[in-house]
Structures are given as structure tokens and as C-alpha cells.
């Protein structure tokens, strides 16, 4: 028996390649992070003198996001990217109970190659010419690190089968790496490896997490109503997994730095001094 997961849960994960684990996070942390998401969009709406939906509820956030998207697609995307970097998102990924649960699954020396990814699904927030969700894929191709890497999928609300949830193919991880086609955002798994009846919807309550093998075949469900689904995913890789050590720690992802000034003639001396004024 592990620190967080019991024997039955660990066995279920090993046999099925995923596990819905409840009561991992304090819901107050999730709510605080949602409030920070909303604040980020409200700041931009007020700056543009656009209508702001009052309150700090999920419904208010949804409406404020839709307003900004309708006014300025690029600003909407910039705000969404910023939200994925907020402290609350990183705190979720490093929550001690989450780390312990992943350790129960064998990740003894955790490392993060990737930053957390913010996932958003809503019929009101479809970017013109863009896409929402991911087609059938495995996460392994995006990291190619340890064989026991665990994907952590953390929703900010109760998830049901009608809320654009994630759908998995139980046991598909045991077949290893599937063939497919490299597309812009994913390595799409060939249809010969699955059928429509194979997929099971993930139902995680707020405060829980779906833990999933990097080899589990999965996709975003297109089944949803007018609600918005927000979730965060990350990868717990294992620095002590034998093949990762043997391959001398390969990484698919690297950091890049923008050299030079993003905003010309900024900041002025006065703007800097204003930050440090005693009030």
C-alpha cells in the first residue's frame, strides 16, 4: 500500500493505464486560482473599457473570457497564456499529495521537463480558424523521457461525461508505442489501434486528478453542453527509470529566450521609480 493510493488503486492503474484519484487538492486552492484567472481577464477588459461580468464565479469568468475573445483574439490568447504561468497552476503540480500519489505508481525521483498546460473547452470560446481539444494520441511522443512517466490531469470543476471530458482506452498502454501520423500539435494514433467502443470517459470530481500512463491512448471528448471545462495537465517523469538513465536523459523540449527588447523604449526611469514609491 502506498502513501496515498491503496493496492487496488495501484493495481487498477497498472492494468488500465489510468486512475481517477479523489481528494488530492484543497478545493480552496482551485477556487483561488480560478479567481486569479478571472482577475487577469477583468484587468484587460477594464483597460479596453469593455463590459465586465461582476463576481468571481466560474460563470463570470466564462463570460469575461468570451467578451475579450470577441474584442481581440490575440489579447485573449496572450491572457490565456499568462494564466497558464500563474503561481496557483504550478502549486497544483507540486502539491505534496499529488507527488506522493505519483510516487505510489513508481515515480521515485520526479522531474519536470515540461511546464504545466492549461486546457480549455467551451462552445463559446472557439477561436476563429482554431481548434479545441486533441484527437486520439499518446503523450509519450511529446516528452520521450522515462517509460513510467505519469500524466496528471487536474480539472477545476466536477467533470461528467457531458463536459468535454478526456476519454481513454483502458489497457492500451500495455501495447506500447502505437503507430500514427505526426500532426502540428500531436502524434495522432492510427485508427487500426482502436475502435469507438474502446473509449471510456474520465469522471473526476473537483479536488481530484486523473493519473495516466504516457502510453495510454486518449482524446478530448467533443460531447459537451454550454458549460466551460478548465483543466491543467503536467508530466511527472522519473529520473531513476532504467531506460531513461541508459539513454542519458533525453528531452524533446527545450527553453528559448527572446533576445532584444520586446517593447521599444520601455521602461522609462519614471515607470521604474513609480513601482517603488512608498504609499
From TrEMBL:
Cofactor(s) this protein requires: Fe(2+)
Gene3D superfamilies in the cross-refs: q2cbj1_9rhob like domain
Organism: Herbaspirillum hiltneri N3
Record protein name field: Phytanoyl-CoA dioxygenase PhyH
Domain of life: Bacteria
Amino acid at each position: 500500500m502506498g502513501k496515498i493510493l491503496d493496492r487496488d488503486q495501484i493495481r487498477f492503474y497498472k492494468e488500465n493505464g489510468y486512475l481517477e484519484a479523489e481528494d488530492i487538492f484543497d478545493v480552496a486552492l482551485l477556487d483561488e486560482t480560478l479567481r486569479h484567472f478571472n482577475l487577469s481577464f477583468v484587468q484587460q477588459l477594464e483597460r479596453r473599457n469593455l463590459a465586465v461580468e461582476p463576481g468571481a464565479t466560474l460563470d463570470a469568468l466564462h463570460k469575461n473570457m468570451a467578451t475579450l475573445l470577441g474584442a481581440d483574439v490575440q489579447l485573449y490568447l496572450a491572457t490565456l497564456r499568462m494564466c497558464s504561468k500563474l503561481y496557483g497552476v504550478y502549486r497544483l503540480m507540486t502539491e505534496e499529495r499529488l507527488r506522493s500519489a505519483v510516487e505510489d505508481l513508481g515515480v521515485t525521483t520526479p522531474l519536470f521537463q515540461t511546464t504545466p498546460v492549461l486546457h480549455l473547452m467551451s462552445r463559446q470560446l472557439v477561436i476563429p480558424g482554431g481548434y479545441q481539444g486533441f484527437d486520439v494520441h499518446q503523450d509519450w511522443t511529446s516528452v520521450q523521457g522515462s517509460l513510467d512517466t505519469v500524466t496528471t490531469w487536474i480539472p477545476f470543476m466536477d467533470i461528467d461525461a457531458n463536459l468535454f471530458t478526456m476519454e481513454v482506452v483502458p489497457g492500451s498502454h500495455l501495447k506500447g508505442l502505437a503507430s500514427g501520423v505526426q500532426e502540428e500539435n500531436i502524434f495522432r494514433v492510427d485508427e487500426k489501434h482502436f475502435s469507438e467502443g474502446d473509449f471510456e470517459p474520465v469522471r473526476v470530481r473537483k479536488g481530484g486528478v486523473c493519473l495516466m500512463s504516457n502510453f495510454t491512448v486518449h482524446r478530448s471528448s467533443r460531447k459537451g453542453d454550454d458549460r466551460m471545462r478548465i483543466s491543467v495537465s503536467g508530466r511527472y517523469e522519473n529520473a531513476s527509470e532504467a531506460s531513461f538513465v541508459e539513454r542519458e536523459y533525453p528531452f524533446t523540449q527545450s527553453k528559448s529566450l527572446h533576445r532584444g527588447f520586446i517593447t521599444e523604449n520601455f521602461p522609462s526611469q519614471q515607470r521604474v521609480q513609480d513601482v517603488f514609491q512608498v504609499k
